[in-house]
């Protein structure tokens, strides 16, 4: 398939959608990888937003910067757009150093959190704005607007006024306004955070499909770990201006690099390790066998890996040596497709709480107060280091 | 007529009475102190000038002929020059005020909140001083022999020993200085509400800094700009003190013409005609600004 430059031949269908769609999403255009080297941002007054960040974002990737508010993810995004300048380090897009390039000279467009549509312009003029600034002729611009309106299915929205649009509609216009410029990189600053849950998941799917069809590099900022996992090819988890972990959603979720990442990804079964002998670690819920060779100070057991059976029942895998402990059901949350149990475990004088997420296969559910046998595979006992060790 | 109708009518009558009683004092005040004097002034404009400067019958259009420049000695353009100078001075000073006020308002809106209050005070406080005193201050700065005048002389901008005061330039300067706060305050209010994301969006979408101003800053601050324009241009048009003091009699504006007709020139009908003209010009200016505001604001009311 043909590589397309950012200044694709005018007049053709928008980004030649059909021809650039690869089955494996490999339709990436060449000039769209991002490389950050030693990027640091320090505000006057000594507040450090980013500590020396090194990051390579591949061409055509859906890349997410994930972290709590104040972690530096938005600052990083704004630097890519050119709206913030790094205090130190270099930033290149498509192999070209753009550290000192002003925003209006970068082939990068942004979908802002507040959408930032121009209220005094019609929707049509909002969408065509970037093209107009680049000096494209009116007839050509209008042709492009028609194409993008078909591509994102805007329908009659283009004829409305900005103040007549709902939140979801504004979001799509903001996306159209950025995409129509066919940038090397599209930046998205929590574009879905202002929308209600239903619309949000619908737009997540739309956004993801759009990205895959275009093969454009998307850099997405969010504080919602579920959204990050659904959307991303890779995720960088940030905290305190440092990348805590970089990896695929699966890696980040299943093998968090440290306690911060584990907590941020929503893990609750975290038990401090008091002693270790070979592959046996001592925790408040007793001695656990593990297959994790890493040194660690905390053991993580993901709630969906716990196996629950009645006290007298045979082991779920009789041939294998599983960690077994007896618990009592304290609370039960029925969620339809799965059931969450809050379990309490009494071990000598120590009391601990575990959370188990069991997929609802239609079998009998445990009731509050029931005694249950919990079995844990040794490979599901994961060692976590301290926060500082991450990266 | 049904029972309900009767009750409803009675209540409506009572509400009307309430409304009339509450509005009456204000209406009376306006009638006695605004409408009546204005009507008298307008009627004076159509009277004849008596031998001792008193307006008298019969009703004529002599005052307007006078105003247009026709006197005992035939036509002279003096009054038209005065009108033209009023329009020119108020527009020039409006333009300069806008140019000066925009950066000031922008800068103040970017300051820390505590500093903002101080800066705004610094803009406003001078206007608490009497206009005459401030005009005298400018006289002292611009008179022949002062450093500023000497500098202008050395640069060849003015003839030797003329000084920057009295002159049209001094009047313009005085007007700009005097009306600056009336533009800074509404602009500042507009800048405070500015959505900075729109500016960043424009920059992100390839707009140069200058185009960003016209696309993202100007439309958002337009209500402030138009409100400020009304507050600056209209009083400037009828300004009396500044041209009187800084113009030195050579840079009369309409306000001075009117004042002199009621005073030393003793021609009340001509003064009244001048006042009427001022009123009409002011209304015309307001209508234009209103239209402009509605057009640029996409149908919403922006001016008054």
Automatic annotation (TrEMBL), chain A:
Pfam families assigned: ABC_tran (PF00005), TOBE_2 (PF08402)
UniProt-listed Gene3D superfamilies? 2.40.50.100, P-loop containing nucleotide triphosphate hydrolases
Q: Which residues form the ABC transporter domain?
A: 34-265
Record-linked PANTHER family:
SPERMIDINE/PUTRESCINE IMPORT ATP-BINDING PROTEIN POTA, SPERMIDINE_PUTRESCINE IMPORT ATP-BINDING PROTEIN POTA
Protein's UniProt name: Spermidine/putrescine transport system ATP-binding protein
- A single cellular component GO annotation: ATP-binding cassette (ABC) transporter complex
Q: Name one GO molecular function term.
A: ATP binding
* Disordered: annotated span: 1-31
Its keywords, alphabetically, are: ATP-binding, Nucleotide-binding, Transport
Query: Which PROSITE patterns does this chain map to?
Result: ABC_TRANSPORTER_1, ABC_TRANSPORTER_2
From TrEMBL, chain B:
List the transmembrane segments.
19-42, 87-108, 115-133, 169-191, 212-242, 268-289
Q: What Pfam family is a match for this entry?
A: BPD_transp_1
In terms of InterPro entries, this protein maps to: MetI-like (IPR000515), MetI-like_sf (IPR035906)
* Keywords for the protein's UniProt record, in alphabetical order: Cell membrane, Membrane, Transmembrane, Transmembrane helix, Transport
**Signal sequence region:** none
Swiss-Prot/TrEMBL GO biological process terms: transmembrane transport
Q: How does it sit in the membrane?
A: Multi-pass membrane protein
Q: Where in the cell is it found?
A: Cell membrane
**Family recorded in the similarity comment:** Belongs to the binding-protein-dependent transport system permease family. CysTW subfamily.
Give the protein name, as stated in the record.
Spermidine/putrescine transport system permease protein
């Amino acid at each position: 398939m043909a590589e397309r430059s950012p200044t694709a031949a005018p007049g053709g269908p928008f980004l030649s959608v059909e021809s650039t769609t690869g089955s494996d999403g490999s339709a990436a255009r060449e000039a769209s990888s991002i490389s950050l080297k030693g990027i640091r941002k320090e505000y006057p007054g000594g507040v450090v937003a980013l500590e020396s960040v090194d990051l390579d974002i591949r061409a055509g990737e859906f890349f997410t910067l994930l972290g709590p508010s104040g972690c530096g993810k938005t600052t990083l995004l704004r630097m890519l757009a050119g709206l913030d300048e790094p205090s130190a380090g270099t930033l290149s897009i498509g192999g070209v150093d753009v550290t000192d390039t002003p925003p209006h000279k970068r082939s990068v467009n942004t979908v802002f959190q507040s959408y930032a549509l121009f209220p005094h312009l019609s929707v049509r003029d909002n969408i065509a704005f970037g093209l107009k600034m680049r000096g494209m002729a009116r007839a050509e611009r209008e042709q492009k607007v028609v194409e993008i309106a078909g591509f994102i299915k805007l329908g009659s929205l283009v004829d409305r006024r900005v103040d007549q649009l709902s939140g979801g509609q504004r979001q799509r216009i903001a996306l159209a306004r950025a995409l129509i410029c066919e940038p090397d990189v599209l930046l998205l600053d929590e574009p879905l955070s202002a929308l209600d849950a239903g619309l949000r998941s619908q737009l997540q799917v739309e956004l993801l499909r759009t990205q895959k069809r275009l093969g454009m590099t998307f850099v997405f900022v969010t504080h919602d770990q579920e959204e990050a996992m659904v959307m991303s090819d890779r995720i960088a988890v940030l905290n305190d201006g440092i990348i805590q972990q970089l990896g695929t959603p699966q890696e980040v979720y299943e093998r968090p690099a440290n306690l911060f990442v584990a907590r941020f990804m929503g893990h609750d079964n975290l038990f401090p390790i008091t002693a270790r002998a070979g592959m046996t670690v001592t925790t408040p819920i007793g001695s656990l066998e593990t297959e994790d060779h890493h040194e660690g100070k905390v053991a993580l057991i993901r709630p969906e890996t716990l196996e629950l059976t009645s006290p007298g029942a045979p082991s779920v895998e009789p041939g294998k040596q599983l960690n077994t402990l007896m618990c009592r059901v304290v609370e039960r949350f029925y969620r339809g497709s799965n059931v969450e149990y809050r379990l309490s475990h009494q071990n000598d004088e120590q009391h601990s709480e575990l959370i188990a997420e069991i997929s609802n296969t239609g079998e009998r559910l445990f009731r509050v107060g029931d005694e249950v046998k919990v079995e844990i595979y040794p490979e599901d006992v994961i060692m976590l280091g301290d926060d500082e060790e991450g990266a | 007529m049904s029972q309900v109708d009767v009750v409803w009518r009675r209540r409506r009558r009572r509400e009307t009475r309430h409304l009339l009683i509450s509005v009456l004092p204000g209406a009376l005040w306006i009638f006695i102190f605004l409408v009546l004097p204005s009507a008298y002034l307008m009627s004076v404009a159509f009277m004849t000038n008596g031998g001792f400067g008193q307006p008298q019958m019969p009703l004529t259009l002599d005052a307007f002929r006078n105003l247009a420049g026709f006197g005992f000695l035939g036509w002279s353009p003096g009054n038209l020059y005065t009108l033209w100078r009023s329009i020119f001075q108020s527009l020039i000073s409006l333009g300069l005020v806008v140019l000066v006020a925009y950066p000031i308002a922008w800068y103040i809106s970017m300051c820390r909140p505590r500093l903002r209050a101080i800066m705004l005070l610094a803009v406003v406080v001078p206007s608490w001083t009497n206009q005459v005193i401030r005009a005298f201050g400018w006289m002292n700065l611009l008179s022949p022999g002062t450093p500023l005048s000497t500098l202008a002389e050395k640069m060849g901008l003015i003839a030797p020993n003329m000084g920057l005061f009295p002159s049209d330039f001094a009047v313009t300067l005085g007007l700009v200085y005097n009306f600056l706060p009336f533009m800074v305050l509404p602009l500042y209010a507009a800048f405070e509400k500015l959505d900075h994301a729109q500016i960043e969006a424009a920059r992100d979408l390839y707009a140069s800094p200058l185009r960003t101003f016209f696309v993202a800053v100007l439309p958002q601050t337009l209500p402030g700009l138009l409100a400020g324009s009304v507050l600056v241009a209209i009083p400037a048009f009828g300004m009396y003190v500044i041209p009187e003091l800084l113009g030195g009699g050579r840079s009369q504006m309409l306000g001075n013409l009117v004042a002199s007709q009621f005073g030393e020139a003793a021609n009340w009908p001509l003064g009244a005609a001048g006042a009427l003209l001022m009123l009409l010009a002011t209304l015309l200016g307001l209508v234009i600004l209103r239209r402009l505001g509605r057009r640029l604001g996409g149908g919403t009311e922006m001016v008054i």
